[in-house]
Amino acid sequence: MDRRDFARATAATIGLAAAPRMHSRPHSQAERIVIDGLDTSIVNEGFLDLVATGGVDCVHKSLDSVPTYAAIYAFLHTQRHRAVPAVSVREIREAKAQGKRSFIFGVQHANLLEAMIPKNPLGTYDTMSAGLQTYYDLGLRIHGICYNVANIFGGGCLDPAVPLTRAGHWLVEEIHKRRMLLDVGGHSGEQTSLDALTMSSGVPVVCTHTNVAAINPNPRATTDRVFEAIARSGGVVGVTAISDFHVRSIKTYKAHGPVSPQATLDVHLDQYDYLKKLIGVDHMGLGPDFVWGWGETFNMQAESSVTFPPEALSNGPAVTVKDYENISKLPNLIAGLKRRGWSEPDLDKLLGGNWLRVYEKAWGG
Q1: If you average pLDDT over residues 48-77, what whole number do you get?
Q2: Is residue 15 assigned to a domain?
Q3: For residues 350 and 92, what is the distance between their CA atoms, to the nearest angstrom?
Q4: Could you tell me where the DSSP H helices lie in the chain?
Q5: DSSP secondary-structure letter at 34?
Q6: Is there a domain that residue 292 lies in?
Q7: How many Å apart are CA 124 and CA 92, to the nearest integer?
Q8: C-alpha closest to that of 141 among 208, 78, 94, 80
Q9: Residue 184 sits in which domain range?
Q10: Is residue 240 a contact partner of residue 271, using CB atoms and an 8 Å limit?
Q11: Strands 35-39 and 58-62, bridge-based pairing
Q12: Count of structural domains within the chain
């Protein structure tokens, strides 16, 4: 069975049919849908328990190759009484109404498409287009460009001056053509992100998971220029809970040594206050990038890492913010924001309303 046959068979099995467009509705606290805007945690029964404890209704799960789709669909089938895949806002709402959690799927880079052409020195856009369609048919709805370093499409956050390439322009057009949501900033470099935003007129563009470079100049953080351009597009910025992105940088890593101190919840909350002032609460969301369940499989040795140099990430397992170590601790974040004067309407938008708005705008319902 080739990729297209597999995609069609998988889509038919899980019911990935196109959904009618829904009209936007106001988000009161009573109907609040809470969205974890980016998570790379291992999805198993323990993770579903954490999601339920945190009061989350929908998780944007970062996936990779075709086998990862097969694995998560197989798991969700065994848990269909409590969790389902979704490809539309309507399906997210339906899952909520049924007391179930929903999962939407994204990829943080376009390296998978690039990998489809190296064996053919005359590789064509048709090859990558077919691959992108395969992933769309499997349920992919959010798509990035680079993962920290440059690829054929543009520059990563370690190559901030590299522009969007000719292939990158093609990629952005293809993503919009399929009504997927374009994800820039964070892993993608500043110039590539700005170029992609410039050619995305009339379409919301997001950054699913990043931190504020103006507060802490970690290479993985994003500049105000990109934040403001995302807001002008009508998009949303998600804030990660990765500790190092709050405290480790080119200015601090030598003093910290191989491992930086764990960031506090207050340091994390400062990022929300900053972005609220810079771009407004209408353009903010959760994007914690939790890595629960990875354990020792994530054991960074930054001195030899291509994608995360010593000024970006500590050695050893990834560490998240104190008291916000996984999605079950979301109530701590909410309580902290309330102490800082965030209103219920503000929280409605931050916790899910803004993500729902851009999903619906991009996907059509």
Answers
A1: 97
A2: no
A3: 17
A4: 3-14, 45-54, 66-78, 89-97, 111-114, 125-138, 166-177, 190-198, 224-232, 244-247, 253-256, 265-279, 330-339, 344-348, 354-363
A5: -
A6: yes
A7: 36
A8: 208
A9: 3-8+29-363
A10: no
A11: parallel
A12: 1
Q: What is the C-alpha to C-alpha distance for residues 150 and 306, in angstroms, rounded to an integer?
A: 11
Task: Report the 3 state secondary structure along 287-324.
Answer: CCCECCCCHHHCCECHHHCCCCCCCCCCCECCCECCCC
Which pLDDT value is given to residue 121?
67
The domain that holds 347 is classified in CATH as: 3.20.20.140
What percentage of the chain reaches a pLDDT higher than 70?
90
Residue 101, SS3 per DSSP: strand
Phi and psi at 221, nearest 5°, equal -80, 165
What is residue 20's predicted lDDT score, i.e. its pLDDT?
A: 32
Structure tokens at 114: 């690039």
Q: Is the pTM of this model over 0.85?
A: yes
User: 16 lies in a domain?
Assistant: no
HEC profile for 154-219?
Answer: ECECCCCCCCCCHHHHHHHHHHHHCCCEEECCCCECHHHHHHHHHCCCCCCCEEEEECECCCCCCC
